[in-house]
Specification:
By secondary structure, the protein is of the alpha/beta class. The chain contains 20 helices and 9 strands. α4 links the parallel β5 and β6. The structure holds flavin-adenine dinucleotide and iron/sulfur cluster.
Amino acid sequence: MKKLRLILGDQLNIQHSWFKTVDANTIYVLMELRQESTYVTHHIQKIVAFFSAMEAFAETLKKLGHEVVYIYCDAPENSGELETELLKIIKSRNIDGFEYQLPDEYRLDKQLGDFCATLKIPSKACDTEHFFCRREELAQFFEGKKQYLMEFFYRMLRKRTGYLMQGAQPEGGIWNFDHENRKPIKERPNIPRPAHSKREVIPVLARIKQAQLPNFGTMPAGTFPWPVTRNEALDFLDHFVQHLLPDFGNFQDAMQEDEPYLYHSRLSFAMNVKLLHPAEVIERVIAAHKQNPERISLNQTEGFVRQILGWREYMRGIYWAQMPQYAHLNFFNAHRKLPAWFWDGNTQMNCLKQTINQSLDYAYAHHIQRLMVTGNFMLLAGIDPDEADRWYLGIYIDAIEWVEITNTRGMSQYADGGIVGSKPYCSSAAYISKMSNYCKNCRYDSKLKTEDNACPFNSLYWHFHLRNRDKLERNPRIGMMYKTWDKMLPQHQDALISKAESVLDKLNEL
Ligand code: FAD
Ligand code: SF4
């Protein structure tokens, strides 16, 4: 029996049981497909990272003795369509069995399911052996409950895995060290950078150009700054544990001009394409804490473990519990277009200018930049969540729908009406001013509300709450806001509303 096994671009898990033995009757296929490069316009570094990692993975498989078919994006015979390319191989290689690993994206899951239903040969879907939970586990865990609370899901996983546990109790006596984390940075830090990738990117760039794949953003001069092989990803992990983890939690929410990464791990791409298993990342971090608890304290360690064991697994669970309807939720009925400067960084609002330019240059922004700068602005300005999704899904190196849409539509835009978060994450300029040095070099004044040079966040913040009063007022975590508003003098209220309206009228000029 001749078997064809499909490996998608985010299934580069060399530890998968598929690869334990070499079988002369099994052919693996990896394809650089137009359909995957164009469902949104992607950042050039994202396309390069995916294609480089896939090509390197195919080389590793070949070295281990597996038979591999690799289809380049610029190959004249490559139709760019998944089904067409699979059918060609099935026919030309007399394949009599087809297998694939369960895709993480609903779109591909459906496409492959439909494809298999039309096949005349047997087909089989296998687990990716990557996550801690099965797809449907979150929905089962919260069955009958009003809300999916991340904290409970996370605690269940801490107990199940035994990570940072002492018997049935959390290490240190509490589950969550958030209150000890999240400090601003006072002075510019001196943070060492991990080594860049050693892979040559010129050939990948040449074939992306030849295939005319649309893209945006810039490529860095010189070497490529993202890990595209397992060894490079392991080097990134080592670098993180050695140099960044000791301060990770402390400065998790801090933002600094010209410091795109600070103490963040930059492991999301490597994990999302499965070069690294989340368990090995967590176990390495916990081992470093156990070895040297004075240097790598429990609060840094727990803060990091919660991101991966908690948020990452939780978001995936939400995705599978809520798709496909989740992709159309628009709780606030927001329909404004994204200002054009989101695509070129040309705005006078310094926090947005820094975050967007950094994203265009590095295909990266850390969590708080995504949530409290770009996301906060989109939410307060009433940008259509479809526009928000398109931007986030295209621009970030780690953007794959299951983890992008739940963060964007859910956590950041509250377009799901409270499935992911119990209240919208938003703030006026005060938060950005406290957590960053952006406001010091801004044309706008973070303390002013209605003057010509007042920070747009301040009036938009009130406008957002007022125009959505019927949807938010009964939320116990927000009710106070409306009490404060109602106590304000009418002339202050009028000035804030008219300022916000003038900001909304000229979003493209901010
Ligand atoms: P670190 O800060 O070092 O955190 C370590 C790891 O924890 C990350 O690599 C990631 O795997 C995990 N993690 C942290 N927060 C989250 C979270 N909220 N959800 C899921 N995993 C998390 N993450 C993506 O992987 N892909 C996306 O497309 C994506 N889009 C986002 C869009 C918005 C609007 C927001 C607010 C967040 C988004 N995130 C996304 C989550 C988070 O911002 C990134 O995982 C993180 O910035 C990646 O950088 P890092 O590896 O340096 O993370
Ligand atoms: Fe951003 Fe407002 Fe601060 Fe300027 S003043 S950096 S726009 S928060």
